[in-house]
Amino acid sequence: MILFVRGRIVPEHKNPLNRLLIWIYRPVIAGVLRAKSLTIVAAIVILGVTAWPVQHIGSEFMPSLDEGTLMYMPTTLPGLSVTKAAELMQTQDRIIKSFPEVETVFGKAGRALTATDPAPTEMFETIITLKPKSEWRPGVTSDSLKQEMDAALQFPGVSNAWTMPIRARIDMLSTGIRTPVGVKVYGTDLKQMEKVAREIETVLKAVPGTSSAYAERVIGGYYLDIIPDRMALGRYGLSIDDVQDVIGMALGSEVVTSTVEGRERYGVAIRYPRAFRSDPQSIARDVQVSLPGGGTVPLGEVAEVKLTRGATTIRTENGQLAVYIFVDIANRDLGGYVAEAQAAVARSVEMPAGYSVAWSGQFEYLERAKARLMIVVPLTLALIFLLLYLNFKALTETMIVMLSLPFALVGGIWMMWWLGFNASVAVAVGFIALAGVAAETGVIMLIYLDQALRDEKAKCVVEGRLFGKEDLNRAIMFGAVERVRPKMMTVVAIMAGLVPILWSTGTGSEIMQRIAVPMIGGMVSSTLLTLVVIPAVYGLVKGWRLPVRADARLDEIVSRSAVLNEAAE
User: Fold this and answer.
1) Other residues' Cβ atoms within 10 Å of the Cβ of residue 471
2) Stretch (H or E) spanning 320
3) What are the C-alpha distances in Å from 336 to residues 47, 146, 327, 424?
């Protein structure tokens, strides 16, 4: 202001833009003052109609951030061989690489040499690096590209799941579920738990919006059991350690020495060729155990060699066994989908005694966020109420501003419905910020109305007459109309900073748009309703029990005072 507001300053009433605003607003406020009750009823009706878009807005924890890289995480049935896994992954990578939007593809099957990534061979992780969006085909988006890829990657026995690398790592570390929705079955018997999980999988596949559903096959693992025969070992003079040493050497590839190649060292391991260890019959027949007195005996003579089925992985949570069901969804909001899925599972799946189901994944974040918002939102409104009361030092003005806050939600809710946004933590932050800004515009309106009211009352005192409803209307007209400029400046300044966010792109824009949209739509409705509703409420509250014409009321009071004086004399 010091730098730019200099020289001849045009008076407010001569500003062309301000005169235009007053010309538009004056007849509006005149009509409001003639029909205060009708104005308030109309505002309440508008608020009530907003319940319709509320019912059509979904819910989610947070919108998906576009990381610029996709992560394809299919899951197959247990028992997949390494050779078949490599063949399947190469086929998938070739299909993915055929899309012109794809820069590179890199897939991984199985687990790394670390305990932090206990992935079985049947779970793939494929990183898809995308080209810049300027090189994409016209009309292709991240969501449409995922749908195209998913349609091209339909293989029997393969359940697809799509996410992004950073998001997948965060989800798996926090909940263990890599898909948007996960179901955890808790119980005591793995076979029974798998049965329940597969029933839930079947039910979820029929729920609208399910892209894929896969229940872990925990009893689908194949194991080679070698059980020593103690009686036979005793006849040959062998011990169990002798048999275990042979198994460790012949089948387990035991390291016997190391070789030095320059500055590098490599372990040298020996074991039987694949032909001698490819099946239980070959192992029992061809693997030889050395006898103490010389000679050998086949392993099958001193031990039972057989294939068995067992658990591929055993999960525990809070001291209970757990089986996971991974669910990927498309074209559905998270909260609405889980509500429908929960009802379908409760209706179709009978849980045995001692077994329970928990819904996890991003839905777990959503439930935590809802619980915290149930505390944060009332606390925010209470703080706004406290600050307003400290500002006005009066309960009436404070309640007028607080009653105007719900009308600020109208525009934000309708704009969310129009743009197809779901309710999320980002949207909640936008509405919380909107409540503060809406209270600010209400405060500005009330300050000018109170100032005009005081001036009008002082004028009545000077003229020696009572203050009436006509004077109140005159004060409201002046306080609302003649001071419309600072109110519009507050709104325009905020809108100028938020509207460009609607056209922003890049990582993070998805979050910022969800914060900005409630504020932009809310500022439009808040401004319109504040300029109309607050003067109407103010007129009704302040005009309670005021005479319509103060002059007649003053004559009546003066005459009655004269009669009382005569009686007193």
Assistant:
1) 22
2) strand 320-329
3) 24, 22, 14, 13
SS3 helix, strand, coil % of the chain, rounded to 5? 55, 15, 25
Backbone angles phi, psi at 20, to 5 degrees: -65, -45
- Asked if residue 546 lies in contact with residue 472, where contact means CB atoms within 8 angstroms, the answer is yes
Q: Are 147 and 329 in contact (CB under 8 A)?
A: no
Number of neighbours of residue 554 by Cβ within 10 angstroms: 18
What is the rounded distance in angstroms from the CA atom of residue 555 to the CA atom of residue 254?
116
- Phi/psi of residue 90, each to 5°? -65, -40
List residues bridging with 310 in a β-sheet. Answer: 221
Q: Report d(CA 463, CA 433) in Å as an integer.
A: 46
Q: Nearest to residue 397, comparing CAs of 545, 543, 547, 537?
A: 537
CB 137 within 8 A of CB 100: yes
Of the candidates 377, 511, 510, the one whose C-alpha atom is nearest the C-alpha of residue 432 is 377
Q: Count CA atoms closer than 13 A to 517's CA, side-chain side.
A: 24
Interacting residues of 473 by C-beta distance below 8 A, sequence separation 6+: 33, 539
- State the pairing for strand pair 356-361/181-187: antiparallel
Q: How far apart are CA 153 and CA 125, in angstroms?
A: 14
For 266-292, give one letter per residue: b (16+ CB within 10 A) or e. eeeeeebeeebbeebebbbebbbbeee
Identify the CA nearest to 307 among candidates 402, 231, 228, 221: 221
Kindly provide the residue ranges of all beta strands, DSSP E only, lying in 40-83, ordered along the sequence: 69-72, 75-76
Distance CA 352, CA 162 (A): 32
Instruction: For strands 320-329 and 315-317, give the pairing.
Output: antiparallel
Query: Is-contact 50 410, C-beta < 8 A?
Result: yes
Residue 111 has which token pair? Answer: 């687990």
Phi, psi of 43, rounded to the nearest 5 degrees: -65, -40
Token code pair at residue 194: 């798998």
Give me the half-sphere count of Cα atoms (radius 13 Å) on the Cβ side of residue 82: 2
The pLDDT tens digits along the chain (569 residues) read 788 877 887 777 777 888 888 888 888 888 888 888 898 888 889 888 988 998 888 888 888 778 888 999 888 877 778 888 889 999 999 999 999 999 999 988 877 776 666 677 878 889 999 998 888 899 888 888 988 999 999 888 888 888 888 888 888 777 778 788 889 999 888 889 989 999 999 999 899 988 888 888 888 777 889 999 999 999 899 999 999 988 888 888 888 889 998 889 998 988 888 888 888 888 888 888 988 888 889 989 999 998 888 887 788 888 889 998 988 888 888 888 899 999 999 998 888 888 899 998 888 888 888 889 899 889 988 998 998 888 888 888 888 888 778 888 888 899 999 988 888 888 988 888 888 888 888 888 888 888 888 888 888 888 877 788 888 888 888 888 877 887 788 788 888 888 888 887 777 788 888 888 888 888 888 887 778 888 888 888 887 766 665 544 444 433 443 443 444 44
CA distance linking residue 66 with residue 364, whole number of Å? 21
Host H or E run for residue 524? helix 509-542
pTM recorded for the entire structure: 0.72
- CB 207 within 8 Å of CB 348: no
